[in-house]
Design brief:
6-stranded parallel β-sheet; alpha/beta; Rossmann fold; globular; 10 helices; Arc Repressor Mutant, subunit A
């Protein structure tokens, strides 16, 4: 069973999402929040058992983008699926670079949202085909959300040792992820990873 936590400040939206997800026999809504501050407070609890966080961008108190940034440190292993009224090509690539596991706009179909939740729950990355065609998705779809995070830090100039310390991982674990990134891009060195990122315009 995929345990989902919903964060949206509109009661009607939350009610609709809860009703929709209840139709899937492998998904259970285990909690809700109306603002970003409450999401972070929930994430700080040791007993917070959540498999996927569905997070609206436009939240009061602390907006969804800032919540995503903080969760990268607070709950680095938690897949976060961003949900928004904005089209994918406006935000998808940037949010995935920040650590989101996926992005779905609120005008997408019910089936697509369920598919996105299932994808990120098993460690995958979800961006709609429309966003991919429009250039909204990074050209790194073979990477897991964790590998995207490490990829971004490498491009920022951080070493494997620095990344391991920041993400509370062993150096060996980070090196294993870096090896996967190299294979995904068909390169041999970290320098070539950085060059690829610039060539494919995956950096700001």
């Amino acid at each position: 069973m995929i345990r989902v936590f919903l964060a949206d400040d509109h009661p009607i939206v939350r009610t609709g999402l809860r009703a929709l997800l209840s139709m899937a026999d492998d998904i259970e809504v285990v909690g809700e929040a109306v603002d970003g501050r409450k999401v972070l407070l929930a994430a700080e609890r040791a007993d917070w058992a959540v498999d996927v966080l569905v997070l609206d961008i436009s939240l009061p108190q602390v907006n969804g983008i800032e919540v995503l940034r903080r969760l990268a440190t607070l709950r680095p292993a938690l897949p976060v699926l961003m949900l928004s009224m904005y089209a994918e090509d406006q935000y998808a690539r940037r949010l995935i670079d920040l650590g989101a596991a996926g992005y779905v706009s609120k005008d997408r179909s019910e089936d697509e949202l369920i598919a996105a939740i299932r994808t990120v729950a098993r460690g995958g990355l979800y961006v709609s085909r429309q966003a991919a065609r429009g250039g909204g998705a990074p050209q790194t779809s073979g990477l897991t959300p964790r590998q995207h995070q490490i990829f971004t830090l490498l491009v920022e100039g951080q070493s494997v040792t620095d990344i391991a310390a920041q993400l509370d991982l062993t150096r060996s674990t980070v090196s294993t992820h870096v090896g996967h990134i190299k294979r995904a891009f068909g390169v041999r060195t970290i320098g070539e990873i950085v060059a690829y990122a610039h060539r494919m315009q995956l950096t700001e």
